[in-house]
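Tutorial, part two.
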Amino acid sequence: MKLQILVWATAILFWLPTDAFSQTDTIRVSVKEFIELAKSRSSLLQVNQQQVNLAQNRYQQARALRILPQIELTTAHGLVPGVRSSDPDRFSDRMLYLDPNLENDWENWGIFTRAEISAIQPVYTWGAISSAIQAAKQGVYAAQAEFDIKSDNYEIQLYELYYSMLLARELQTLIERANRDLQTAQTELNRMFEEGENDLEEADLFQFRIFTFQFQTQVDEVSENKRFLQSAWNLALANDNSEIIYLPAERFLDPLSFQPESLDAYEVSAIANRPEFIQVQSAQRAAQYGLNVAKSANYPTVIMGFSAAFARTPNRPRQANPFIRNSANFENVVYGIGLRQNLNFNVNRENINRSQLQLRQATYARNAVSDGIRLELRENYRRMMMSFSRMENTREALDVSNEWLRMEQIEYDLGFGEVKNLVDAMRSTLELEVQLRQRIFDFNVNIGKLNKAAGLPIVQPKE
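Running the prediction step on this input gives:
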């Protein structure tokens, strides 16, 4: 019997549960609970979430630039000497600037304090600030879409892992049952050969022995993979406690209840919900806003400026002349409206050209992703329909094989059946049982992949 399918089935598993751990705590989870639990414990998704947080931070920074994007406060402190007039009777403290022989008084020290605050508030920027904010907002959408892409890919892996677990449990049951049946058949064939049954040839015995060793190879391979698969399963759930074992809520691998929609309906859903399309669409919009920012650089920006400064030094008196500024003692406030213009128009032109190229590139990327989504959707739709056909045909073939096996068993029990035919019927039934479970697994997984391709939840709520 050809049991190569068992090799493939065990290779895709991440965990093969067993009932041998009777003293451990068993937690049964549905496929949705399993996915959510694994995602909540995924370090990779937590790292990717920080990219979304950084994009949100950049968006908040862009919004903060609307109000007083440039405001500075400068202070200075120190010790300075006082001043001494050559003729105190002639020059009063408020007229010291008229004394040509004014000099520092090194015996009179005071604490110097000066503070200056300046701010610039854009009044009209030709849409540069609002476009920059919108571009940063699209960056948040793009970062969130990138996170959703990785999350969806991880979900489909977990989804396949969950149903692989169910497949593994049923394959394990089949292997154990088939092993007992093969041992019984081996004993019966040896007895018949020793008794010299006429309808049994020595070649049949050799073929059966070869098949037995091939089957035992698959059994050994499943056993050898258990430790690795158990570690991989625990790694997916971040389960470091050997006393806890997670099992699927379902006891058997049954086909999902599924009624497919039309291909057009899936396409509409995919274009509206797929994060890949949302990502490139956000990039296209961000490029358009970036082009608006580049174009606004050719026009003067209307700004409002404000500056206030004061200085205090007790040992240096203020001067009465408004045209004379004593840097040690003064107060000054300046405000007004002005224009700011970048006169390097060559650089502005190249910036606009670059932004136009980026917008064109984003448009092409959007069209390419849209075509790719449609092709992927059609491929997943085809696979789902083919897997359903294979599953149903294999189910029908298994019914026929079971009928054949029952007939051979009845004839053998009545004494006129052939052991060779009984073994062939048993082998055919076992092959089809394994194939049917594999077909059910493929069908369930393809449903999840179709939902993912259509931008729908991978696990659909039960009706």
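The CA atoms of residues 166 and 251 lie 8 Å apart. In part three we will examine how such features are distributed along the chain.
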